[in-house]
Amino acid sequence: MFREARPLRWRGGECLLPAPVHLIVHNFIHAFLHDTRYAMKNLSLRQSFEFALASHTYGNLVDWNAIGQRCKRIGYETAWRQYLTLVHVCFGSSLAPVGSVDWAERMRIEPYLIRMNLESRAVLWVVNFVCQLASRLFVLIRDPGKVKKLLYKNSYLKLRDRVFPPH
Question: Which of 49, 63, 156, 167 is the most exposed place for a label (fewest CB within 10 A)?
């Protein structure tokens, strides 16, 4: 990342601007995987807009297939397609190559779109609780050894903070 970054002098200092591919991949990892998908927070419109803008600005400099293949190798192909589809639906079609948005892709992103449009805090809390419960059940199904985490008070405090996020 540092090797491919572009140095920039700004306001008497120096900084490094990430290469377009790193900017785009970092946005995907941070905005979707870390914040939205695993923390079950709402999708950040600012982050997704930054992705859309970077895709539009630098799209011809990015090997989209290479990113998709790397995501596939490490098990994030579906997440990558979901994020591309979300950004496509929210900001239009002149972005990264998402292919056609079929009904299956649309169904995978529908929960994110619903959560973005919720205006009632009570409904948001119910949706957050159901999403958190489903996420935790899938973890337990994949790794039953994690059931011991249910004995820790900290896990319930985290659940509370994710269901009732501070505004």
Answer: 167
How far apart are alpha carbons 81 and 71 in whole angstroms? 10
Does pTM top 0.70 for this prediction? Answer: no
pLDDT for 6 equals 87
To the nearest 10°, report the CA torsion of 113, 119, 120, 125. 40
Task: Give per-residue pLDDT as tens, 106-125.
Answer: 777 777 777 777 777 777 77
Q: Which two tokens stand for residue 58?
A: 């630098």
Residue 83 to residue 79: CA distance in whole angstroms: 6
Count helices and strands (H / E) in the chain. 7, 2
DSSP category for residue 44: P
- The first and second tokens of residue 59, run together, are 């799209």
